[in-house]
Specification:
The complex is a heterodimer of chains A (398) and B (420). Chain A has 398 residues and is of the alpha/beta class. Chain A has helices spanning 2-16, 18-41, 60-71, 82-91, 104-108, 127-153, 162-181, 196-200, 203-217, 219-231, 234-238, 245-274, 283-307, 311-328, 340-347, 350-362, 369-397, and strands at residues 49-55, 75-78, 96-100, 116-121, 186-192. Chain A is elongated. In chain A, strands 2-1-3-4 form a 4-stranded mixed sheet, with helices on both faces. In chain A, strand 1, helix 3 and strand 2 (75-78) form a beta-alpha-beta unit. In chain B, strands 2-1-3-4 form a 4-stranded mixed sheet, with helices on both faces. Chain B contains 16 helices and 5 strands. Chain B starts with a helix and ends with a helix. Chain B has 420 residues and is α/β, with parallel strands linked by helices. Chain B has 2 domains: 2-42 and 220-418, no CATH class; 52-198, 3-Layer(aba) Sandwich (abc type-2 transporter like fold), CATH 3.40.1710. In chain B, strand 1 (52-58), helix 3 (69-78) and strand 2 form a beta-alpha-beta unit. The chains are: A alpha/beta (398), B alpha/beta (420). Chains A and B meet through helix 2, helix 4, strand 4, helix 6 and helix 7 of A and helix 2, helix 4, strand 4, helix 6 and helix 7 of B.
Chain lengths: 398, 420
């Protein structure tokens, strides 16, 4: 019962501070809208690979090669001469440069294509250029090879009339084979599993991300109560009562849990009503993740409150934790866009599990079952942080 | 002289506090450092792509005596020369694969249909490879599509060649008999197998890839992006540091030392000038430390000294005025933390500091940026990074200082009334 009283006291203290409350509530709402806007809701950033094309050949096949690359939609064409392109690739301003050598078109039709060079900047992942350029190159060389074989197989009829007619026939057949390739007998149909509408709502990424980020940030207010209690000597008074030290920590932890849960509930409601994030499609699963994330953050909040000697330190520890957990855990930007090692580290963090728990429901369209593992991991982290907080509490108290 | 003493005292106090140093220097470097490691690392190269696990469900039942195109596709994807981020495993059934995909143990499933070979070896037949992927992934599925496209090009190329040949031969009145068809199809298939295999890996690949890494000491595009992010973080935390330093007014008021100062011969204007000078100097010193450390740690090139000096001047002037106004609005020192955090975060966000690394932001958003002093301070640093004409950098500084002056005047009027 006393634990409840202590928790109630903490909650009242935070709720009565209207400016802190505004800060805990309004800021997350503003940032959620803003980040969703920045990550796909409104920003017009071109994320394609910037690519310059140097055509030293000038032939039809070389031109068709470029058309195929352009049609892929992955490259943003940049018009530059060769020297400028090379210099910009070197400086990293340009992602890649393709150099088609002189004589390329002719070489295709004699079965020994001249080397096409693809130069990439150190700042771009080479595979992002390699795969699509390779596919386009194979299409072009394949069509040329087919044209060569067809003309040769037909022996004289289509190639009679001298070299000029022969070349014209090759180009004509080359174009026909490419036209056939536009109607492929084998298609590759790539699609995300789940409903497209759910996948394309940018707030499905930013809303749970900001929820986790600001739930951590909210610890500034709630964790500092522990520190303030020590500063105001009310903690010393508390330990003279029959309340055990464990109960004191539990009381503060309970208050943080309730505050975080309330903040989460508000953000979920905002996401649902204002941003079209369908949290309520699996209310139980969402609730489970919310509760477990709040328990984890209560553990973290207790640890920060115990570790910090002054309220200012609470801000520092909380902000550092928020940035570390949010950035590494995929709450600020998707881990897919980072490097391998960074993503591997990030995936084990509790913030990543919380975000994943929400994404399973919001983006992957899964049910309660998908929330169980993230919830268990979050509870494991909660236990770890509570234990660390209790140990530190006992040590500093001693 | 007294104003200088007050300024020095506040300055020392700010830089002696481990907390203040952590917030003013540690956190901005930490945030930029995390992004630095996330997207580039120390090499200045793009980091390796995260692993992408693909399950292949081969349901193909090739007709007797026919080639097994399903197995060929599995072998193609599992080839050791495939990119190292692509991890391919076989799955027995579509249900198994989907379960694994939904359990996030794989990121994509490639389903080869039962009539795959049969459809593709039948004249006019067609087939579809289905790829289902984790909806949170975009890069891996896109690359997988291209890799599959390379395979399908080989499989369908012969058929396309035959279709084209049929049309050509029909126009010339020559029959494309079975022998000619077989010669064409086999010739093409052999060529494709050879070419695709040697495409990137053979001894003399026809498509060569070369990566140009920056010469040592050169600034990469990635560093450039981080420089912009660092500029945003620097302005944000310099404004934070300035407000924290300006808070000494409320702290001294709370502790009673401000009242003591007021009964000394020092005029209130002198006292507040000292406070303002401390805020200005804190911003300058903090800015200098961040410029120096970010150059050392991340290789950011901030431009020459004239640009750095101008950007520092503009930022410190704007931050000083802003701080005084914010502090004038805060009534209670103990409640200052969250309020200041809120004001700084919202104004920083609307001032464009959180999106300093973004390009192509909506024009309306950029216009809103302009009404916040942080945006002008950020512009000063961007001009330093670009080594923009000094006249432009000078104009930016003037606007920043004008912002600072207006905000200072408003803050000063409020504080004077408060401490009258």
């Amino acid at each position: 019962m006393r634990i409840l009283d202590l928790a109630l006291k903490d909650i009242l203290q935070v709720v009565r501070d209207r400016r802190s409350l505004l800060f805990m509530v309004l800021m997350p709402l503003a940032f959620t809208v803003f980040m969703g806007f920045a990550f796909g809701g409104g920003a017009e950033e071109d994320v394609r690979i910037s690519l310059a094309w140097v055509d030293r050949d000038g032939g039809v096949p070389a031109a068709r090669f470029w058309q195929l690359v352009e049609a892929g939609g992955w490259a943003q064409p940049v018009n530059l001469d060769e020297a400028d392109s090379l210099s910009q690739v070197q400086s990293g301003e340009l992602d890649a440069l393709v150099v088609v050598p002189a004589g390329f078109s002719g070489s295709l039709f004699v079965g020994s294509p001249l080397k096409v060079e693809v130069i990439t900047s150190g700042g771009v992942q080479e595979d992002l250029v390699r795969a699509p350029v390779s596919q386009a190159w194979l299409k072009i060389t394949g069509a040329a090879e087919a044209a060569r074989m067809i003309v040769e197989t037909a022996e004289s009829p289509v190639s009679s009339g001298g070299p000029a007619a022969h070349d014209a026939a090759l180009l004509d057949v080359f174009a026909r084979v490419l036209d056939e390739a536009d109607r492929p007998a084998l298609r590759v149909e790539v699609s995300p599993y789940g409903e497209l509408e759910r996948v394309t709502n940018p707030y499905n990424q930013s809303s749970p991300g900001m929820l986790v980020m600001f739930a951590i940030f909210g610890l500034v207010s709630s964790s500092s109560l522990l520190t303030a209690e020590r500063r105001n000597k009310t903690f010393q008074r508390l330990i003279t009562t029959s309340l055990s030290r464990g109960s004191i920590l539990a009381g503060h932890g309970l208050a943080i849990f309730i505050l975080v849960l309330a903040q989460e509930a508000l953000l979920v409601l905002f996401g649902q009503l204002a941003l079209g994030v369908d949290y309520l499609r699996e209310p139980l699963a969402v609730l489970l993740i919310m509760v477990c994330a709040a328990i984890w953050l209560a553990g973290l909040g207790v640890l920060i409150g115990v570790a910090a000697r002054e309220e200012e330190q609470v801000i520092l520890y909380t902000m550092a934790t928020m940035f570390l957990f949010s950035a590494l855990g995929g709450a600020m930007f998707p881990l897919e866009s980072t490097g391998r090692v960074f993503a591997q580290i990030g995936q084990v963090l509790p913030s990543a599990w919380a975000v994943e728990g929400f994404q399973n429901i919001l983006i992957r369209g899964q049910g309660l079952g998908s929330a169980l593992l993230p919830a268990a991991v979050l509870l494991g982290y909660a236990l770890l942080f509570f234990t660390a907080g209790a140990w530190l509490f006992r040590r500093t108290d001693a | 002289m007294r104003a200088v003493d007050i300024a020095l005292k506040d300055l020392l106090q700010a830089f002696r506090s481990k907390f203040d140093l952590g917030m003013m220097v540690g956190v901005p470097l930490l945030i930029t450092g995390i992004l630095y490691l996330a997207f580039g690392g120390l090499s200045g190269r793009q980091a390796a792509l995260p692993e992408f696990r693909v399950l292949v469900v081969d349901l193909d039942q090739p007709p007797a005596g026919s080639v097994d195109l399903g197995s060929a596709l599995v072998d193609y994807l599992a080839d050791e020369r495939m990119p190292d981020w692509l991890i391919v495993q076989a799955a027995a059934t579509e249900a198994d694969a989907m379960r694994t995909l939904e359990a996030r143990d794989a990121q994509a499933v490639v389903i080869i249909p039962p009539d795959f070979t049969a459809a593709l070896t039948r004249p006019g037949g067609d087939a579809a490879l289905r790829v289902l992927h984790d909806p949170t992934k975009t890069v891996g599925p896109s690359l997988l599509r291209y890799l599959l496209g390379i395979f399908t090009g080989g499989v369908t190329g012969a058929g396309q060649a035959l279709e084209a040949a049929g049309a050509v031969f029909a126009e010339t009145g020559i029959e494309l008999d079975a022998v000619r068809q077989a010669v064409l199809a086999q010739g093409y298939a052999e060529w494709y197998a050879r070419t695709q295999s040697d495409l990137n890996h053979g001894q003399n690949p026809a498509l060569t890839f070369r990566r140009i890494d920056l010469p040592a000491g050169e600034e990469s595009d990635l560093t450039r992006l981080l420089a912009n992010i660092m500029a945003g973080m620097m302005v944000f935390f310099v404004f934070f540091g300035s407000v924290t330093t300006a808070l000494s007014i409320l702290k001294e008021d709370h502790e009673g030392t401000l009242a003591r100062l007021f009964i000394t011969p020092a005029r209130k204007a002198t006292i507040f000038s000292g406070k303002l000078a401390a805020v200005f100097l804190t911003a300058v010193v903090q800015g200098l430390i961040l410029v120096g450390l970010s150059s050392l740690l991340f290789g950011i090139r901030w431009g020459g000294w004239p640009w750095v000096a101008l950007a520092l001047l503009g930022m410190a002037g704007a931050a000083a005025g802003f701080s005084l106004l914010v502090v004038a609005f805060v009534r209670d020192y103990r409640q200052a933390g969250p309020v200041i955090g809120g004001v700084l975060s919202v104004s920083g966000m609307l001032g464009g500091l959180m999106t300093a690394g973004f390009e192509g932001l909506p024009v309306a958003f950029i216009r809103i940026n302009r009404i916040f002093p942080q945006a002008w301070a950020l512009q000063g640093w961007r001009q330093a990074l670009d080594s923009a004409p000094l006249a432009d950098a000078g104009t930016t500084v003037m606007v920043s200082l004008a912002f600072g002056a207006v905000l200072f005047t408003a803050g000063w009027l409020l504080l004077r009334r408060r401490f009258a």
